[in-house]
Amino acid sequence: MVQAAHDNYTSDPKLFEKLLEDADKPLYPDCKKFTKLSSLVKLYNLKGRYGWSDKSFSELLGLLGEMLPDNNEMPSSMYEAKKTLTALGMEYEKIHACPKDCILYRKEYKDAIACLTCGTSRWKGKYKRNCLL
C-alpha cells in the first residue's frame, strides 16, 4: 500500500499536493473536527468493516452531502471518493469466504467452487420456492 502511494506521488507530484490540500480543507466552512480527507477515510473504513457495496456507499455519500451545510467537501459518489482514496493507496481486493467461515477463497483456494473443509458451495443459489430464477 505504501509503495503504491509512493509510486503515485513520484509519477504525479500534483497528486501529493492535492492530498495535502484535502487533509487541511475543512469538511464544510467553520468545521473544526473533520477535514475532507479525514471524514472520507473514516467513512471508507466503515464501508470495509461492514461490507457495504459501492452503490450503497455512493448513496450514503450523496445523502451526507445533502445533510451537511452548503459548500461542503463531501464527495457525491464512490467514483469521486475513489479518486482521493486511490491516491492514498487505499485500494482493496474483495475476498470471498466460506459462509461457515472455514476458509478464505484466496491463494491456493482462489478457484475453488466449494469449501474444502465443509463442502458448502462458494456461491449463493438463486432459488425461490423450488424454482430457479
Keywords for this entry:
5 helices; mainly alpha; Transposase; disordered N terminus; two-stranded antiparallel ribbon; 46% helix; 133 residues
Describe the protein in words:
This protein has five helices and two strands, in the order αααααββ. The chain has 133 residues and is mainly alpha-helical. It has two domains: 2-87, no CATH class; 95-133, no CATH class. The chain starts with a helix and ends with a strand. The model is unreliable at 1-5 (pLDDT under 50).
Layout of helices and strands, plus pairs?
Layout: H1 2-11, H2 13-24, H3 36-50, H4 54-67, H5 78-87, E1 127-128, E2 131-132
Antiparallel strand pairs: 1-2
Helix pairs in contact: 1-2
Organism: Liquidambar formosana
Protein name: Transposase
Widest sheet: strand ordering: 1-2
Number of strands: 2
Helical element count?
Answer: 5
Q: Approximately what portion of the residues adopt beta-strand conformation? A: under 5%
Helix content, binned percent: 40-55%
Poorly predicted runs are 1-5
What string gives the helices and strands in order? HHHHHEE
What sort of overall outline do the alpha carbons produce when their principal axes are compared? Answer: elongated
Radius of gyration: 20 Å
Mean pLDDT: 84
- How far is it from the N-terminal to the C-terminal residue, by CA? 40 Å
Largest pleated sheet? 2 strands, antiparallel
Number of structural domains: 2
Q: Structural class, please?
A: mainly alpha
Protein name: Transposase
Organism: Liquidambar formosana
